Structure formats: C-alpha cells, structure tokens
Amino acid sequence: MDWIRLPVGLLQTNAYVVYNKKGRCLIVDPGDEEKKIHQFVQKKKLKPQAVLLTHAHFDHIGAVDILREQYSIPAYIHQKEKKWLSNPLLNGSEKYEDVEPVVIKGADHLFSKEEKTAIDGFTFHVLETPGHSPGSVSFYFKESGLVIAGDTLFKGGIGRTDLKGGQEKELLKSIRDKLFSLPEDTYVLPGHDQVTTIGQEIKHNPFF
C-alpha cells in the first residue's frame, strides 16, 4: 500500500489518498480542493472505494459530498459526530468569518467502537482517540506500518482542545494509551503539518 499527503484549504489540512497495487484507494479527510484530490486520483488511475473521516471539523470534511457523489462511494465517521457534518456550530465553520458555513449530508456508515475494518482490499483498525473532539478516531494500517491520526497527534505537538467537546486530559490519555502503544517505527500521518513516527513523538514531544 502507498499513500500521498495533500495539504488542502485555508488551514492546509492534510487530506490523504491511500492506494494499493490493484488501483483502489481510500480518501481520508478531504477538507477542501476536491479538484486537487481528483487530479491525483486521475493521474494514478485509481478507483476510490470510500471516504474516511478522522473527525468532523469543517477543514476535514468540506469536499466530502462532491467526492462521494463523483465516485459513488460511502463516507464513514464515528457516531458521536454524525450530527456535526450538517451543523456549522458543531463543525466549527461558523467560527471563521472568511469561511462559508459547511453543511454536508449524513455519513453512510458510522463507527461505534474500536474495530478491525475491511473495505474492498484495505484492512485497518479503527482506534477511538477522543480529546480533540468527542468522536475523533485514528486509522491504523498495521501491515503498512502507519496510522492516520487526524488532529490527535502532531510532530512535536497535540491537537487543540479549546473547540466544541475538546478535553485535554482525554486527548493525552488517547495518545498515551492508543497511539504510543503502537510500534515505534509506525509512521504518524497527522491532520496538519509534517509526517512523524511514534518513536520520535515518544522521545521528543514536549507534551509528554
């Protein structure tokens, strides 16, 4: 399996496309710039299978409807944030003057617990990592040695907790219990900024 990081939108949120040798792919956190994502999919001649959302803040969900309609694919999110997709107050888009309120359709599938999930050739573990938001999840691709962590863990930082439903103690616990328990050579694909590893954050992250 391979992947690409595509920073998109006002906040330069990292959208990811993970793809395999069979030409299938998953689109993770398409927050904006659907054309940029589509161009990569076309270039690699990929066939999208689903949209995965680590959480429902506006900068991670803005292009969901356009992409899932374009490719006729389902969108997945944790059930705790199912109402956030259509509510600008919850997804944070109403907070920014230069951002149009983000309202998208409900998710097609809801995660309700930690589980091993298979989608058309892709197998990954859904890890519940709340704290940045109540329904934040991370997607752990064990065989590929990577975890897509959304806004839970960053290179040298952690997700903000001053938004709706954020809790710092819960966030730190999620990182310690769920992410720092992964192999140290696991790549961390965060929701913003550069890629890091679990080992690097255990040793150098100033919050721990």
From TrEMBL:
Residues 12-192 form the Metallo-beta-lactamase domain. GO terms for molecular function: hydrolase activity; metal ion binding. Its cofactor is Zn(2+). It holds the Pfam family Lactamase_B. Keywords: Hydrolase, Metal-binding, Zinc. The keyword Hydrolase applies. CDD domains: metallo-hydrolase-like_MBL-fold (cd06262). This is Metallo-beta-lactamase domain-containing protein.
